[in-house]
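To close the section, here is one more complete example, presented without commentary so you can practise reading it yourself. The ligand is nicotinamide-adenine-dinucleotide.
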Amino acid sequence: MPAGGPTQSDRSVRVQVPGHEYEVRIGTGLLSRIGETLGASSSVRPGSRVFLAHDANLPQAVASAAGRSLETSGFRVSAAALRADESDKTLSALQPILVELAKSRQERHEPLIALGGGLVGDLAGFAGAIYRRGIPVIQCPTTLLSMVDASVGGKTGANLAIEPGDSGLLKNVIGAFHQPILVLADVSTLISLPDRQYRSGIAECIKHGLLSADFGDPGLADWTAAQLDSIVARDATILAELIQRNIAVKAAVVRGDEREVSPTGGRALLNLGHTFGHAIETLTGLTLPGFPAGPLLHGEAVALGLIAATACSAASGSCPPSLLAQVQSQIAKTGLSTKVQGLPPDAQLLSRMGHDKKVEGGSLRLILPAGSGRSKVARDPSPAHIQSGWAAIRA
Ligand SMILES: NC(=O)c1ccc[n+]([C@@H]2O[C@H](COP(=O)([O-])OP(=O)(O)OC[C@H]3O[C@@H](n4cnc5c(N)ncnc54)[C@H](O)[C@@H]3O)[C@@H](O)[C@H]2O)c1
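Output:
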């Protein structure tokens, strides 16, 4: 095995997009070997400056281990701690990162490492996309959601505040496609992830199972359903397989439609559950039964969105009603809520769906599960069917 190469227990997925290919490595202890890994990479020059943008909530030992490994391998490290707060994921949070990059005299060929969950990955990745018109980015996801989804595929971005308050925040409407040069998913970082955050990530895995048949893994939904107890218990072996299979599905989707332009679905299929989910994610005044009042986490909103999309699909006859019961039961088994209290009236929710970026030329494009691991695009579904979706999650 070459120094800096994968160990026998590491897993790997290749992501290919036009003109660019990169590795996603999945394993334990990857961050404490990151210096060796970059040292062995042909895309990073020896002795480069490396900018480590890390989530301020990570245990200190995680960022320190990565920093130490980089320094031991001869890299010159500058670091910045970022607050992972959705209301701070705005243009104003970009400025200090860009200033730090400039102050550390980071050059165009020198990489930025985004170490954290999807929020830090999106924000630091966006800074990497625009600083000097794009520097190499290495994504090191530390949440389940960012390992199986956000770190792969090159979407970076921030929210746009169009009105004061959380409900005036438009999710991810600004950003750039900027593929990383490498993704290191160090499964051992998940140990410190709070339970609620961890379970949120499982929602994206359930989503992938609802569309994976067209992307090389028709058995993913059944396997995930059968392994849910082990997944919830964070069994390391099952987790490594879960992450690898989910990344492989995402990679297959992205390979066919990097820029989300396919008229037949492609990357837009990954928005399954998100149009419903985004409409409520930044709403205040919602409560999940059994949880303290407060904003929903992204994965919690996606879980509810998956149920709403499946109910909408079942109401329109696009999937068997039994699929709704299956999705509800899987989500309940992970400990995620299947209902939410305090939803505003349907008319307001419909209008919020119109703000979502999945609106094209004034028409609403929803992704709906079709059964047997497949999902499809529905253009302008009837308001009555959409209302069935909201009714399914209204507590
Ligand atoms: N780019 C994409 O393709 C894509 C896809 C999905 C979601 N996203 C974005 O990702 C964000 C959500 O990401 P997320 O669910 O990973 O949450 P997050 O990044 O907001 O992190 C959740 C919380 O966990 C903390 N945390 C992260 N890793 C930790 C660890 N190992 N131990 C302890 N605490 C840890 C964070 O500080 C934060 O408080 C949203 O902003 C969403 O828009 C992007």
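Once you have examined the tokens, check your reading against these statements. Residues 55, 57-58, 84, 86, 89, 116-120, 122, 142-143, 145-146, 149-150, 153, 155, 171-172, 189, 192-193, 197, 200, 298-299 surround nicotinamide-adenine-dinucleotide (CB under 6 Å). The longest helix spans residues 236-256.
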